[in-house]
Design goal:
By secondary structure, this protein is mainly beta. It has one helix and eleven strands. Among the domains are: 32-90; 107-156. The protein has one helix at 13-20; strands spanning 31-35, 39-44, 47-53, 59-66, 71-79, 83-90, 97-106, 109-117, 120-128, 134-141, 144-150. The chain has an eleven-stranded antiparallel sheet, with no helix packed on it. The radius of gyration is 22 Å and the shape is globular.
Length: 156
Amino acid sequence: MIDYTFKKKYKWISSYWKTTDTNKLSKFDWEDYEYHNDSVTVTSATQIWNYIKNSEGQIIYDSLFIKIANQFRTIKYIYSDSNFVLLLNSNNVRANTEYGQYNFKDKNTIVYTSNINPNKILRVEYKFNNNGLLTEINSFENKVAKMKYFIYYSYY
């Protein structure tokens, strides 16, 4: 006869994972935040993010370092009145590649375009209501509609 009783019983599978942790899932459980005058550093077990803001509170520099793979990428934000451009540096792409551009189409619409892959031009439209809440996301790949999200809010 085989005894199928277990030493420990768990109410949730995540509790079991944390006990055995064979896939090292608990390494995602923590993040440390450090705030300085114009920068924020977020450190976790696997990655380090750095953000630098200008005097107006806009992010002008963003970096990510992946510890396990020893990979990094930085993004510089260049602002103007009608748009801002993201310049990407990484150990996987050439320096100062234009990663994407956000254009302010009107008061309630922001359009993101990315042509980092010459064969695939990505365009995403973000539409907001008069309260500034995101209500719709439309995604296009090479001018072909790929996805449309509608977002509804309910208030209690």
